[in-house]
Design goal:
The structure holds two protein chains of two kinds.
Chain A lengths: L1 E6 L1 E3 L21 E3 L1 H15 L5 E8 L4 H9 L4 E6 L6 H15 L3 E5 L10 H9 L3 E11 L2 E8 L2 E8 L2 E5 L11 H7 L4 E5 L11 E7 L8 E3 L2 H11 L4
Parallel strand pairs in A: 1-4, 1-6, 4-5, 5-11, 6-10, 7-10
Antiparallel strand pairs in A: 2-3, 7-8, 8-9
Chain B lengths: L1 E5 L10 H12 L3 E7 L3 H8 L4 E8 L8 H11 L3 E7 L2 H13 L5 E4 L1 E4 L2 E6 L4 E7 L4 E5 L16 E3 L9 E8 L12 E5 L10 H10 L2 E4 L1 H5 L20 E5 L5 H7 L4 E6 L12 E4 L2 H14 L6
Parallel strand pairs in B: 1-2, 1-4, 2-3, 3-10, 4-9, 5-9, 12-13, 12-14, 14-15, 15-16
Antiparallel strand pairs in B: 6-7, 7-8
Helix pairs in contact in B: 3-4, 5-8
Amino acid sequence: MKILVAVKRVIDYNVQIRVKEDGTGVVTDNVKMSTNPPDDNAIEEAVKIKETGKATEVVAVTVGEEKAQETVRKALAVGADRGIHVKVDGILEPLAVSKILQKIVDKEKPDLVFMGKQAIDDDCNQTGQMLSALLNWPQATFASKIDVKDNKLEVTREIDEGLETIEINVPAIVTCDLRLNEPRYASLPNIMKAKKKPIEEIAASDLGVDVSPRLEQLKVEEPPKRKAGIKVANVAELVQKLKNEAKVI
Amino acid sequence: MAVLLIAEHNNKELRPFTLNAATAASQIDSDVHAVIIGQNSADAAKQLSELPVVKKVLSVEGAHYENYTAENFAPVIVKLAENYSHIVCSANTFGKNLMPRIAAHLDTSQVSDIIKVISPDTFLRPIYAGNAFATIKSNDAKKCVTIRPTSFDPCESTGGSAPIEKVDASEEFSNTKFIKREEIKSDRPELGTARIVVSGGRGMQSGDNFKLITEIADKLGAAIGASRAAVDAGYISNDHQVGQTGKVVVPDLYIAVGISGAIQHLAGMKESKVIVAINKDGEAPIFSVADYGLEADLFEALPQFMEELNKLNTIQK
């Protein structure tokens, strides 16, 4: 079984983002960037499946500008076998990314495609579902547990009401929740080894996909600020304030 | 052209966020039709027809619709879409799972999780865990929009009498099989719609200690929330998680106990009307969004809180 894992480069989850004064977006210059956190879970799961002998190859793919390749390099350092970097500049909507990934799937013919359930920058939560629609493959979104059984997967999904278990036939798409596993850290020797692993570079324009945006981002602004609160001295004061001032209990 | 609302239901009745999505749909265009796909879902379809904002109900029945599988739902809606300008549903796990599958089939760039309808083609949505708001204009002929339920009031649920039309079922998608659903039953209010939420974080130290929170929640008629750290640690089940990748809540009162206030948690609760933070670390970021902060050891503060509540003559429910 061959697993393709899609990873995205985003502003690190610990960074307090700042909105640009001209309202065109958020500040990304000199800001720490990392792999989208649930994409790390997707890589980890693929590598774990390979380690049990149920997968033969793990290929990491990213779509984006020059520096996006760092995320593929990181995936290689934690166990992916080789990488693909589809180069494209500018804003990419999930629809465009899923069309590019469809082309990569056509070329690579993986049995499974894994990715994070949501990117923490645009918070869209679309790419995996769109890719499975384009391929007409089954989709297991928000996965917190995956059991590989021959040509099937049993996947536990986190839903609003609790948990749901589904069985999907391969080939299939899985989007990963942060609770799926604990991503490992890359060891120094593995980081060195990863530098020798191949990354194929493909220009998005060579794939024949129209990636032009359909959405216009008219403005990006700061959300309204909450006004400063107060510290109370003790529990009795807190309850009195809630009862008599805020009138919520 | 009219707007098509996708109803969320459990085959017996509508799920509550359908009413919030109906409000959003009616703000896009007053001509709202609603589709309900299910098995033996006639009662839920009738409920849908009674929403005054809904002008027509389309009912699709089939055994393969019993468990709301996106692979089975999407083709039905894609077929219906030719008559509509917008497809709308909630941005909860139901809508997040389903809508992109429809949008890709329609070759449309979806607008996810909107918090405001500015005009029929322009919407406001949070990005970066709610640390920025983006105004987005869609240039697609058909627009697929998911709405953040807590940003729209539920519509009236009675008084309407829309006609119910049957629509043919689509073929079954055979590569996805539903096995089981483990729903956590509770007599408490639902987290997404509760007036008061009491949430615990890593500071609770164990699942057992959550009983300190349960007790207070019961007294206040509140729902119970949790930070991701508490869910990851196994203190409480995933359906309680509040935050960027969990649920977004906007209660009248949110009490955060032993929660430091990571950006990802704040994303799920900072629009609450009144926020209380109880934490022994006075520097914890949760205090920056709290209206009332109490710097205290929660294992002392929570029993005292219960005592003080017991002293009150009346408690709003």
